[in-house]
Amino acid sequence: MTEVFISYAREDQEFARDLNTALQNVKRETWIDWRSIPDSAKWRAEIFAAIEAADNFVFIISADSLRSWMCGQEVAHAVASKKRIVTILYRSVDHEELLPGLKEIQWIDYLALGMARTFQRLSRAIDTDLEWVRQHTRFGLRARHWEANSRDNGFLLHGTELREAVRWLEQAPTIKTLQTTKLHEQYIRASVEWEAGELERAQRQAKRLRLLSLSLGGLLALSVAAAVGAYWQRTLAHARELVSASTASQDTDPELSLLIATESVAVTWPWAHTVLEDAEEQLRRTILASHGKLTLRGYEGQVKSVAWSPDGRRLVTASDDDTAKVWDATSGQELLTLRGHNYSVNSVAWSPDRRRIASAGGDGTIRMVTTVYALDVDDLMTLARERFIDDPSLDSCKKYLHVDKCPRFPELPWW
Fold first, then answer.
1. How far apart are CA 324 and CA 317, in angstroms?
2. pTM of the prediction?
3. b/e burial code for range 33-54 (CB count within 10 A of at least 16 → b)
4. Whose CB has fewer CB within 10 Å in the chain, the N or C terminal residue?
5. What is residue 221's three-state secondary structure?
6. Tell me, what's the pLDDT at 387?
7. Are residues 134 and 124 in the same domain?
8. Are residues 61 and 86 in the same domain?
């Protein structure tokens, strides 16, 4: 999240740059688009996402910005998102020409105040109800994430975070500079209802446990039941936290999300094979979303080519960082980095006997290297025997092996 999104016309770029610099000099995080590129759906989506993630929307008023189609789109999105909007009059305009949603906002008159006093007024506006505004942005982003994922229960608020959201919503009538959106209210209400349902389900489970404990009789049984019930509540809470963590990491790290989802099922399974409905559903989703068995990391540049060894136990990859690498295909461990090309390595291939790798580079050369990491021990011994040309000197054997006679090349026993 950022503190300030700055909307301006290209003709007012010099003033926008001065304003942005002044904000950054006092450690305020800003978002401003300096690009002069043709409009596109991807570009608009990026700008709209930045508006949603900002606590404040600052609009620089001039005849040029009021004529700008993109400025109009940005203002409309800020108004729809119920963002706090601060306007700065940079060039004289007729008040009636202001864009929808701006006429009722008192602008900061740069023409009358100058830069220093304009910046003071802007800073005061940003700091008004600061913490409440930050929560407005935070819960707004969470709500839009929930909406974008078909209002999946896994994206709802729970526990302490939900209680914070309820208190925040209760404060809304006292905030004069900003309003909540309908989506804010729907999201928090849905979270409250889901939490209440979870509590009711947990209470029913605790009641069943208490009834079971009563059949054991005696005060000791009741004490055990209370302890078991409390532990069960903690187990349920932990399982729900795991479901939320799995859901949150699904897009960025599907393998981690899968691991967490399995744990959310495992924590309640010992209780008579009980599984939360959300945990089971999340496990299904993460299994479908998980495509890779292993992720190999270690390159600084783009990976251009990959090839399996003939036995399927190794991988060789080529990159535009001028290297090729050999990997263990089971563990993902990097075994060897091959260097020598002066430009991007574009293609790699194994020899049929697994002993050599050929690489083709953007420098116009093809290199071949013998790789011992693709060979079994018996193949390694064979290759070593081929490389063993001159017998070592007796002096070397005495120095390093402490023997009076040099050994012969060893043979592996057939068993």
1. 5
2. 0.46
3. beeeeeeeeeeeeebbeebbbb
4. C
5. helix
6. 47
7. no
8. yes
Per-residue model confidence as pLDDT tens digits over 105-147: 899 999 999 999 999 999 998 888 878 878 888 888 888 888 8
Compute the distance between CA of residue 354 and CA of residue 379 in angstroms, rounded to an integer: 10
At 344-368, the pLDDT tens digits run 888 889 888 777 888 888 777 777 6
pLDDT tens-digit map of 57-68: 999 999 999 999
Range(s) of the domain holding residue 191: 130-292
Q: What is the pLDDT of residues 312-328, one digit of tens each?
A: 888 888 888 888 888 88
Q: Which two tokens stand for residue 271?
A: 């209780």
Instruction: Provide the token pair at 279.
Output: 């945990």
Does residue 415 register a pLDDT over 50?
Answer: no
Joined together, the tokens standing for residue 53 give 């993630």
Q: Is 113 found in the same domain as 30? A: yes
Please indicate, yes or no, if residue 236 is contained in any of the structural domains. yes
Q: How far apart are CA 5 and CA 245, in angstroms?
A: 29
Q: Say how many domains are in the chain.
A: 4
